[in-house]
């Protein structure tokens, strides 16, 4: 055990952190310290059963974060804008972890980041849940903390939550309300993040200081619909309209999501080839859909 590198995984019971923790647990070179606000919750208990060390750590509490990081080789950090809907809170959390990583001399931090859209567009477009992460990326760099930022694209899983199909009352087809028009959109299963992070940690010298845009597939909404139609035996169509009726995101988040898609229309850098090199088994949308067919049909 003494030869293993201890990696602190924040958000270990969430989608991103959970994927990373499970992938690290399957690798003989790493020991996982799973940071969670509630070590007694079922997802945390399961990680403990798999071999993770559970530690109570809220990214809003410096003392808990410092205790979790002490003695570790590195960390995976993800922050959750949607929990509080406040960019300043997310930036504060990220910078606090960066300060402690610098203080404690961590050898490698893999940060789930995104572009600072406000800066990139000269203030013409603001995407709060991107911009905050972009500021934190910049802060890690300014401190000289050995950091790799992994930038996820649209989750395939979003088709079962925020953007799940809505049945049209007239045709009986299922419509997908993702406002991308004919511009291809990068996508990936969040469950595939873990093996990517393991590869990044295993190749520290290559990836420290890099921003890695991830993508498993790049399809237009119509092409996503064609895959759904072929795999699920029902007709799926691109809504191509903001007038779609049916399940929608919370009103508070509509503008934020609309601005996210405006940024997607600018074709941010997502590297299909590098993603596949980091994890050759990364699932295409069709592979993911077939794997999750029962859950998708239950919608």
UniProtKB/TrEMBL annotation:
PANTHER family: NITROGEN METABOLITE REPRESSION PROTEIN NMRA FAMILY MEMBER (PTHR42748), NMRA LIKE REDOX SENSOR 1-RELATED (PTHR42748:SF7). Belongs to the NmrA-type oxidoreductase family. The keyword Metal-binding does not apply. Keywords: NADP. Pfam families: NmrA (PF05368). This is NmrA-like family domain-containing protein 1. Residues 4-237 form the NmrA-like domain. GO terms for cellular component: nucleus. CDD domains: NmrA_like_SDR_a. The keyword Lipid biosynthesis does not apply. InterPro entries: NAD(P)-bd_dom_sf (IPR036291), NmrA-like (IPR008030), NmrA-like_oxidored (IPR051164).
